[in-house]
Amino acid sequence: RRISLGGERNPPREHVAEGIKANALPLTCYGLGWPDGPLSFEAMVREHAGAAINLSVMSRRRPFEVAGAGGFVMSTELDELEGAFVTDENGADDAEIVIVRDIAEIVAKARFYLANDRERERIRLRGHERARQDHTWERRFREVIRQAGWSLPVA
User: Fold this and answer.
1) CA distance 67 to 125
2) What's the pTM?
3) CB 150 within 8 A of CB 141
4) Is the pLDDT of residue 14 over 80?
5) Integer distance in angstroms from the first to the last C-alpha of the chain?
6) Residue 74 burial class via C-beta count within 10 angstroms: exposed 0-12, middle 13-18, buried 19 and up
7) pLDDT at 67
8) Which of 93, 106, 114, 144 has its CA 20 to 30 A from that of 11?
9) Quick one: residue 24, left, alpha or beta (phi over 0 = left, psi -120 to 50 = alpha)?
10) How far is CA 77 from CA 89, 94, 115, 128, 150, in A?
11) What is the 3-state secondary structure (H, E, C) of 73-124?
């Protein structure tokens, strides 16, 4: 059981990684600038699916990628997530992803979800289902085409 933090190494992510490590939580970091470097697409999908918690810090893409790959998402708050997923703040019983705002909240929620496999799994499954239902490239392209006033041939 571990936390995975992906994305280019930058001061905010370094600060979060240091805070997690200072609290003796298991952490793996990957991406440009981290010792393990960037992952191939296949390795990244395995990482998303294999980590107990995938922590997204200031990434607009990562929550969608992780949920799509079947991983558990813990993310810093972003406007892009509003309405895209049910968060633990919107309804703990229906949560699809977990939102965090600072190191103390990351540590507290990480400890909770690392210790509560059943709850983590329920959120992970709901998030994956939402991503498959609403956040695929096909669905996004169809929406762009619809908004542009075009139509696609019916298959």
Assistant:
1) 9
2) 0.88
3) no
4) yes
5) 44
6) buried
7) 95
8) 114
9) left
10) 11, 18, 23, 19, 34
11) EEEECCHHHECCECECCCCHHHCCEEEECCHHHHHHHHHHHHHCHHHHHHHH
